[in-house]
## 1
Amino acid sequence: MQLATAAGAGMAGHLLLHSLLLSLPLIAGWTASNCLVTEGSWLPLVSRFFLNCPLNSRLPLLAVCTKVTNLTQALEAVPQSVEGLCLAGSISVLPQDALSNYPGLKVLGLNLRLTRLLPGALRGLGQLQELSFMAPQSKNYLFLHPNALDDLRSLQKLNFLGPCLDRNSSIQLPTSLRQLVVRYSCLQDVGELDDIFPDLAHSPFSGDARTLDVLDLSFNWQLKMASPGALQGLRLGTLHLDHTKMDAAAVLSLGLQKLKSLSVLFTVTAELPAETVAHFELQELQVGNKQIGHITLEALAFCHSLQSLVLQNGGLTDLPPNFLAAMPRLQRLNLAGNQLQRVRLCMNETGFVSGLWTLNLSDNGLLALSPATFSCLSHLRELLLQRNQLTLTLDGWGLHLETQNISEIFPALRQLTLLGSSLEALCSQDTSSFFLWQLPGLQSLKVRGDGHSPRPCCITGLPNLQELKLDALKYRARPRPVQLQELVGELPRLRVLQLARTGLETLSAAAFQGLGSLQVLVLDWEKGLVLDGGLQELSPQMPQYVYILTSSLACQCANAWLEPWFEGSPRTYMWVQPPQLCPAESGGGSKHPLFPFLLNHCQEALELELFLGSCALLLLLISLPLLQEARNSWVLYLQALLRAWFQGLRGQKNEGKNFLYDVFVSHCRQDQGWVVQELLPALEGCPPEGQGLRLCLPERDFEPGKDVVDNVADSMASSPITLCALSHRALRTPRCRLELRLATSLLLAAPHPPVLLLIFLEPVSRHQLPRYHRLARLLRRGDYCVWPKEDEGKDSFWAWLRGRLGQPRCR
């Protein structure tokens, strides 16, 4: 089980989610300092921790990391199979290949105070569909290289939420892009987009202009100008200019080839933009800023193409006659927030029938609605009238439910919410009248009490219940500790259990006996939680996710066993949101971290540590024969480094030593064909066709019957040059990884280091190299080359290799 704290308490463990069993090694250790991981289907349960992230529940695995100052360290806590990732913190420059270990990312949000994005920073994210740059403060300038987005061939939505871009130029947008959002930025003129994104209106790859579904420039408070032709030829679905200083009439001069929807809420637009609607034959229009006041019939005559109209907060006091008849295609009308005390939408004498589906008249101060108000709205499906001054009378209607007939009235009820009652019926011990028993098809139940129930309410016996939330059930008058089994009973199909403010204090194994399908447990706003030690035996049956949010663990020795259990359980991922602290013994203001405090003060914890230490020693003794057989690589490293050190003391230089081989070639069995067909003829053959060198090949020259690690060490010592043929297959081969690490260690530690050459048979990220930071000097120096797939590049490759190997000779 993994324990993570939002304050970074430094507790490490094994994060092994059930959906990652095939992608993570069983020995992988993860330190989830400030990272929360969840499946997309459980996102609503922890949504408040994703408020500033563009992630959605359609993605299978999500992660959010906060307070990020070291990107490499933070990403160690994130599984490589995540498809949604949000990073928040203080990093100014995003380095190259920063996220190349996450090729399956679909959505990425960066709230890192970035000032610069280096070329190749987003390399490897070919599946990314949505990218968001967020800035926590205004006038935070972000500089992007013109080719910074070249690797994002699948990108569909690009969001800039805060950073200023007006000092950028010539940024190339991916051809797959469908939505561009630039909000809270420093834009003053729409024409600035033509300099920042020169291919926005004119695609450089074809003669046709670009097509975008959405261009959102909202909340650019200084945006007030529209240079003529700034978006010349762009085919646009929706343009958002809300909360700017733009006038809807200025859209006509942008040069848009096509526009379907326009939103100019809270702008300087003071009248219905009839000419703009007519020019583009708009289907949707949103306008409103308290300044419109009145709409003329002449303006309505230009609006026959509208299907959706929002005139919200427009200061309207009346509507012109034939208002709906002037817009025969209208399906959705929003007039909320105006000053309409009376509304007349239908004219009976015309016989007109509107196709309107949705009508919103909320917040208008309506006093009355005449019978003819809706006479022409035979297709109306949704009517909103809240927050008016209407009086509604239902004469002869009534509703009376009893427990005996509730299943007859609601035979297909799947979701039920009970709010604000004493819940005495829910807590009834008389199961014959317990109405929930009459709802065998119920799948979701949410119960919120009022704090007046004298005893806990036990929910049980619902065979199809999958989601249960219990909130505010704690009895305020005489609160007492509550155990989980007092709140839930036999619920065989329950998958999600949320408990908040229930007074829960004890969590024991007995509570999970009737919850065999439970996958997620959320404990919110609970205090002094004690996890019973019997949960150790229940570990395989524990939920896959346990979230303890805004709750506290009790500073009792009964919890002393938790930390090693968190680290040792491979199935459950646990997130503990607040830092867990214990009060000082002297009663002062300072507090101590929970688990170190319990470890030092609880005898039970010491006994547990001794028990775990004994188990570890026993396991080590059992493993000694295997370790002796396997010959751990660190022993080999030590032997090789000591040998090199002694040679340096004796002054033995490579130039004066007779080597058995010229080059030791490291490769995997799958790449043997390339070695035999390409490398061997070019190096072992006599000039001019070959180089006349003697190669040491593991399959051919290793001493039969000799241990593999000894063969590797002796062969490297007998060769002045080590050549490693690297591929993804080779990096997954234990022997090749051993050879590469040993060669790297000798290169850095030996007094007279041998030459190490790398040949990449296919593109490989530095992050995939073992301890790749050790190869930084090598890669900077140029002792590597990539095998070209095309014939015209092979001459340059062989010239480089001959230059590094020395003059040819024939034996």
## 2
Amino acid sequence: MESNKKYWKGLEEYKKTPDFVENNKNEFAEPLPIEDVLNEAGLSTVTPRRDFLKALGFGLGAVTLAACQPAPVHKSIPYLVKPEEVVPGIPNYYVSTYNGQSVLVKTREGRPIKIEPNPNGGQFKLGTDAQAQASVLDLYDVSKLKAPIVKNEETTWTKVDEFVKGELNKAQASGKKIRIVSSSVDSPSTKSVVADFITAYPTTKHVQYDAVSYTGIIKANENSFGKAVLPKYNFDKADLIVSFGADFLGTWISGEEFTSQYVSNRNAKSLASGKMSRHFQFETGMSITGSNADTRLPIKLSEEGPALITLYNAVTGSSLAGGVLPNNTTVEKALKLIAKELLLNAGKSLVVSGSNDVSTQILVNAINSSIGSYGTTIDLDNPNTRYAGNDAEFAELVKEMDRGEVAAVFFLNSNPAYDAINTKAFEAALAKVALKVSFSDRKDETSTLCDVIATNLNYLESWGDANIYQGTYSIVQPTINPVFNARQAEQSLLVWANAPVQDYYQYVRNNWEKNILPVTGKTWNDLLQLGVLTAAPKAAGTYTFSLSLASVSQSVLNSSKALAKDVELQVYESVPMRDGRYANNAFLQELPDPVSKVTWDNYIALAPKFAEQLGFKEFDVVSVKAANGYTIELPVLIQPGQAQGTASIALGYGRTKAGKAGDNVGKNAYPFVTFVNGTQQYATTVSLSKTGATYELAQTQTHHSFEGRNIIREATFTEYVKDPAAGSGNHGAKHKTYDLWDKFETPANNWVMAIDLNACTGCGSCIVACNVENNIPVVGRDEVRKRREMHWIRIDRYYSFDDGGNSVSEEKEIASLENLDRVSVVNQPMLCQHCDHAPCETVCPVLATVHSSDGLNHMAYNRCVGTRYCANNCPYKVRRFNWFNYWNDSRFDNYLNNEFTQLVLNPEVTTRSRGVMEKCSMCIQRIQGGKLAAKMEKRPLKDGDIQMACQQACPANAIVFGDGNDPESEVSKALRSQRTYYVLEEINVQPGIGYMTKIRNTGTIPA
């Protein structure tokens, strides 16, 4: 019988057939001809081999060679003999500092691949923020410059030094001004370098400015108490918190630190002791902090000033003019009730405001002084140095440049051509400066306007230090040799100043050994091992407010009246993008906003009723026009909780020269920022008009959802005190269940997890940590729109609308006066539940998903054929189908699909191929690593030896992982709590993750 089969000698022959080419033309990109590849590299087909290898060295080879050096290093050592401390397959950890928080950097074979919190990190020892977790990716960013630039041409450092020194000498001879423009500097060594540079060039001045400013708080403290500082806030010492637009759990000052403090009074341990802080939030747009408040009241931007005057009058018994909110009696009544509680909690309360207006912050100071906050919840004697920018000084700089008084300007960690208020005025003034030098690592919006780009190093390649609080010092040390031909900015300044010590490693060490180590009583080696050294802080003093508030209140009212027209616009920092400096980080672009769950874009948020009133629907593109004429077009997002008559737009988007991932993502909202009374203001008025277009946002909240089931359980603190099982559903007998399968035995370990809904704030740090640890790809905007995001852990955000029926005492009075603008929010991390009766396991036709003897649901990727039966059968919708080889497909709008950036991959976790299912593996590589370490040390495995990536990154300590077979483990204790329930436990899949009931402190005011 004749066969119709066709045969080929091998795969290479088969790949040439028309059928194969046609079927796979969309899966595999056509390779470029070798001539094109060489031309792109500046070579030709006759280029000598040495030059070809030299060009290759600025790609994958550069990182490979850099990684072949032991770290930290300050001298280049050939990798002819393996460094003693590098063992293939075994990670090395080095302490460093990221944005002031001490971290551990995990390296494999010399490559930094993961950021962890430093257990010695003091106030930062618990968790990290999403930016820190994603920062390792920036090291391998292909958008960075490979060498310094002079007059738009790559050059050598020798020529850069000759050019800059020559121009500086001309500037010095002319007597004109020299300016160093930077974001806030908290490094003692960097400050010393700047001082040395000023000594060499006396006309130099250091101008610090921050894209998102805190000048208002600093100036208010100077006016109120004679101390121009940003205070140290102690949320852990506050039993009552009242916030006016301060997103202190997200982007305000030090979100990851404040989260740890805040949760310490609201977590399982605090509740078990019968204590829980209380939090009121007054704000315009829904923030991550507002979503976690016990009581959240939306107010217009123009109402914040009168609201503070109302609170001040109620607390002090004064009668400042303007303390009336005629159109919002709900807020006015609420503030008078809150004032009583502030007085009852004197010395244990805290009032904060997110405003950058000096008068508003002075009013806040007066309230805090009257309730005894200074010396307890507010510390002016050990201030926070993370932000020290001066808005007025930067405004004056622009005027100086425009007048032709500045001969040279240097930009360090700053990008004013993107984030300054009036970029046109800035660029026109900058053009009049003879020498313009940027220390950027890429051609960004500002560096493209400069004569010299002295390419700076990534912090993972650098030496440095930080001093965030009085007596707390941390070190920055390199974990890899410089990947490209870059040089640290501080070293460049030392060279140009002809400093006696120009090696920055030696400079930092000298500074520590002379000025810091003697104070701490430690050695240089102690520092490199611990990462953080501390000296005794100053005693926090009490401060009495004595200023007259007549002119202050009038200034506040004038600002409020100016806003009370048209649509009141709030511009704010989003949790993923912050001020936009990390816009080219694809992990952050694809991190869903904690509230809106939008990725890869910003938008204009409007309240449901207000949008309906204006005739807008979700995703309608509207034109947003400010009084200064600046206009952008953005899609509408309907946002419950947004104050009526207001709109909100996130900053940090609209970059034009960030890199492949960040260019032209969203629209730039910085031109909406105004300059009033010496400070930047983030509130203005705009007019809105419909364009007729629509634009679908890449929003994840509606993906993989199962609303309508009993998945969120809540109770009030009053109910909890009476009954610790309140709201958990653990009362009474549960219905009888029947098992179709035998019980799985777990003879050694039973790995389980507990998640405290009262601790989780929804910040998303766990999502990025999971992405980095488990090589989870970024898929891009279009794929997210198709519900194809690959995140193994998601944070579901649920709204509930309360008419006051379940509230008590004054809460009922407040709630009864509100409409659907009063919305409460619960965040729930959702990942594979590792069910003992897993529905996915019974339907897999190839046994790709199976149960282990230690209680985990495993995935054998090589078996999986992608039937997706398991995903259909999963009640939690936590399985992801890999539609494409996202790590190796150039069609997706991110820069993770090249061999250079893939050096960030964790070699302990395989990258998944197209057509397979994947989901949370409970970091099986960490479990095995912990077991192996205990075995090698010949000891039993201890509770806490193994931590999940999500658990370790969480600044709220909301996730607890461990062995359920150990009754003394932290997870066993957590799961025995009466607050613990299991999501969808009624269907008897027996999940391995327990959740603790959400508790809200909406109790009564004591008599």
## 3
Amino acid sequence: MQDDNNNLEENQFEETHEEGNQETITKVTGMYKEWFLDYASYVILERAVPAIADGFKPVQRRIMQSMKDLDDGRYNKVANLVGHCMQYHPHGDASISDAMVQIGQKELLIDMQGNWGNILTGDRAAASRYIEARLSKFALEVVFNPKTTEWQASYDGRRKEPIHLPVKFPMLLAQGGEGIAVGLSTKILPHNFNELIDASIKILKGKSFTLYPDFLTGGEVDVTNYNDGERGGKVRVRAKISQLDKKTLVITEIPYGTTTSTLIESILKANDKGKIKIKQIEDNTAKNVEILVHLPPAVSPDKTMDALYAFTNCEVSISPLCCVIQDHKPIFLGVSQILKISTNNTLNLLKHELEIQLNELEEQWHFASLEQIFIEHRIYRDIEEEATWEGVISAIDVGLKPHIQHLKRAVTEEDIIRLTEIKIKRISKFDSDKANQLIESLEDKIAQVLHHLEHLIDFAVAYFKELKDKYGKEKQRLTEIKTFDDIEATKVVMRNEKLYVNREEGFVGTALKRDEFVCDCSDIDDVIVFRKDGSMQVSKVAQKNFVGKDIIHVGIFKKGDKRTTYNMIYRDGAKGPTYMKRFNVSAMTRDRVYDLTAGNKGSMVFYFTANPNGEAETVSIEIKPVGMVKKLKWDIDLSDLAIKGRAVRGNLVTKHTVKKVSFKSAGTSTLKPRKIWFDDVVNRLNVDGRGTLLGEFSSNDKLLIATKSGKIKAVTPALSMHFDADLEVLEKWEPKKPISVVYYEGEKERYYIKRFLIEQTDKEESFISDHEKTQLKIIVTDYRPQVEIVYSKRSLENELVDLEDFIAVKGIKALGNLLTEERIKQVNRLEPLPYELPEEDEDENYQEQTTLF
């Protein structure tokens, strides 16, 4: 079969020449048959993909070996290291120096000196002649051991290079790696140093474990779909963005794979395209990332934050692909499998090292015992009369035989030769006690090594724990693991376009500037259109789009919107009865025309309104005089109608001919108050029942938000809101409920109590001073709160304080009443005293609820 394939390949490259009547066939073989496969194999095995045995690509392995060759504890010029590495690596100096910089920037194996570039800003390293490097202590401990290294000839046969380095650590998962070969690629994400060690210990103990990526750039990562790093998996990585003030956002950490330069560029592009709206970007990045995003007036920081995630590199998606070389073949594995293989490899290397150490100790014990016998029994005197070398060897051999029964192996000629090399000075100063002590110490060491071999798992666990103690203190997790909520681009896009409509001719678009203005929009929005004949259509925003004549309503369509309610009264057919209905439009197919009437030709809409919060107005119906009908005009309250699907026919209004339908009076929302929950996993509000229920909110209700830094506000809840990490209070706001605070005033160096009400809504205020030493101890929102004061001095007893009795309600800016000058250890919240709402408040609550329903 193989021969047939070869023949087929050869036939494919046959070249035919005609010389007169004779044909000459030339077969093109060689490079066309063999070289491409050889090249692909070479790139995969020797260039792009790391080996699972030590976690290195060939160039990385050769760099490490070159640094070990030149290691003397001092820094070497990188140019010198690169030149030395070229003895192993058959490529140019540029590829070697770039690979060395990448290893150094991972801050694990190389101790760097000079400008090695910056992974945060993307700045390149200085030229190799200006920077220096040496192996880190960690690399010297875990990467090298000549005794356990297998060697092979270098590419030119002049030197020996390691086939694989004896790495006793999951280096591949710690550093990560990526490469593009011929026909395949690899992308292994880096993981946390300490978490890898903990997972390796769990593997040794037979316990389960999980591994998630950790990046030097920090940021936040959603690992919901990580899939153990295998093909088909995905992680989402976000920058860490917070609100500095009302007009400024600050980015302090960036996603893996980006730099401050590329991040800022993506923000500017989104701004130019109108996706977001910013005033200025200020890059203050030095050792740490600090990018200030200044916002124009009247632009929401919360909405801009979501827009940055939706339209810029503040959020990136990474698809891992763990391809490694094992047994000279590329294979695809998960990170758990890679770690198990690495841990077993470390276990085998530790065992090999122990076996080598045991052999060396036994050899030392063997020769120390021979030396003691040779000197103590004066066997060296037996060779004084011998004239030949053979006689000397024989005499020593004969002299040793009565005393070597306790030795663990036979005495060889090499052992006897070593005895003849002992100097007279050593024989003359030989101390029998010291010799016995040496032998006993060697026996203790042998026993210890044998114990380690018998308890190899425990030894390996202790080895990993020692690595963690020595090198893991400054390698804490940098990337925070979170669950991201999905951001709908249409909800956060900046509406930088204006939508216009020509109702008579039936055009809608952003270029119809002479026609009727509808609303602001973006180029990714959808437009919903209702026509007088009772048809409806949704289409993409365009410069000019024909949607049909006689338009009665046009607006922005929101997918999944179940609160916007449409009220409609229409005639079925040319002379049919009149119906009324209320409906939502939450989903539909773009550019498809839907009929909202009963479907008869000549139908016409008399009355139509779009209500964003389910409002239902009262309308007047007037019919034409007919027969004996006396009631020609009456009112209908549309709130009596149930909200149903758009396809229903509706309720009958009248069978007679309607003359006019007119608006009479506005109504209130017929929708129930929305239940809102707070999910502390993603720090976001939701209406899906995730997290803690905050309450039922109508259109007039507010959300009370207070932080440990002393900021408070009562605002209308929005699902797009962001919350600071120091959140202290998050609940439904009751305007008449006082807010009580115990705090330390930094300037006066005393503790105060204050109680206040929020008088201005939708405005953030400070309720304690911004002095650097000012500190909030507790904030409570009970009507009659009680707290327990625990003093730092043990001589002072805990004090119970009724805050209502201690101070009256004052303004938010008031200092409050002095509590104490003594240091307070902590303030504990106690069960509040009983409180009943005044009757007037109860009546108001009842009336409010009845109007809502």
